[in-house]
């Protein structure tokens, strides 16, 4: 069964509703800080792409060809690449910014994906991330753990119980205090490679 994330029209409808309820502000923050050569990792249907500043040069990557076809309508001039975070088809150090908006919850091997992000970021590059994460409330985290197998199946790979911030730090990134926000299980932050 394909999950919500693999049905572009349904995913867009869910995202539009969430953006109307406040996610839109966080998405605009995510994209507003993008500089230089930008990789929109896990771009899905391309909701970030029209928000990019004119001074940026972007490439968008997603494992779903169907989602990329929808992204093409939103951003006809941006190169679209079918690929996975764990094996980015780019040379080392070519991006100034990597955007990840609600993508790492569905990456099969998040640590490997983050090591790839680190590899393709330039010396002063930044990872800008927006993600839902494991709850800090023990009872809610246990509930996420219980729901995870069914949720992952229904949502087509999404894991609601990942501690993404800890995984980012374990992969060799430092999360900047400035701009870091938490609201419930939503997080946004900028991270830079330590090496």
Structure description:
The chain is α/β, with parallel strands linked by helices and 195 residues long. The chain has helices at 8-32, 65-74, 110-120, 138-154, 164-170; strands spanning 37-41, 57-62, 80-82, 95-101, 121-132, 173-175, 181-183, 186-193. Strands 1, 2, 3, 4, 5, 6, 7 and 8 form an 8-stranded mixed β-sheet that branches. The relative contact order is 0.16. The mean pLDDT is 91.
Which helices and strands occur, and which strands form pairs?
Elements (H helix, E strand, L loop, with lengths): L7 H25 L4 E5 L15 E6 L2 H10 L5 E3 L12 E7 L8 H11 E12 L5 H17 L9 H7 L2 E3 L5 E3 L2 E8 L2
Parallel strand pairs: 1-2, 1-4, 2-3, 4-5
Antiparallel strand pairs: 5-8, 6-8, 7-8
Q: Provide the low-confidence segments as ranges.
A: none
Strand content: 15-25%
Q: What profile does the largest beta sheet have?
A: 8 strands, mixed
Average residue-wise pLDDT: 91
Briefly characterize the structure:
The protein is of the alpha/beta class and 195 residues long. It has five helices and eight strands; from the N terminus they run αββαββαβααβββ.
What tags apply to this protein structure?
alpha/beta; globular; 195 residues
């Amino acid at each position: 069964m394909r999950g919500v994330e693999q049905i572009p029209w349904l995913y867009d409808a869910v995202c539009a509703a969430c953006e109307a309820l406040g996610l839109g502000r966080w998405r605009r923050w995510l994209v507003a800080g993008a500089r230089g050569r930008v990789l929109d990792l896990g771009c899905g249907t391309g909701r970030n792409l029209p928000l990019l500043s004119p001074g940026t040069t972007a490439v968008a990557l997603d494992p779903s060809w169907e989602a990329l076809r929808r992204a093409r309508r939103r951003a006809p001039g941006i190169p679209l690449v079918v690929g996975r975070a764990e094996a980015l088809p780019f040379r080392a150090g070519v991006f100034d910014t990597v955007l990840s908006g609600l993508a790492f919850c569905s990456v099969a091997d998040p640590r490997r994906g983050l090591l790839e992000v680190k590899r393709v970021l330039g010396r002063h590059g930044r990872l800008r991330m927006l993600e839902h994460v494991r709850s800090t409330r023990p009872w809610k985290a246990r509930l996420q753990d219980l729901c995870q197998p069914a949720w992952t199946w229904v949502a087509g790979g999404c894991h609601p119980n990942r501690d993404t911030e800890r995984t980012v730090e374990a992969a060799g990134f430092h999360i900047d205090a400035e701009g870091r926000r938490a609201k419930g299980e939503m997080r946004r932050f900028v991270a830079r490679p330590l090496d």
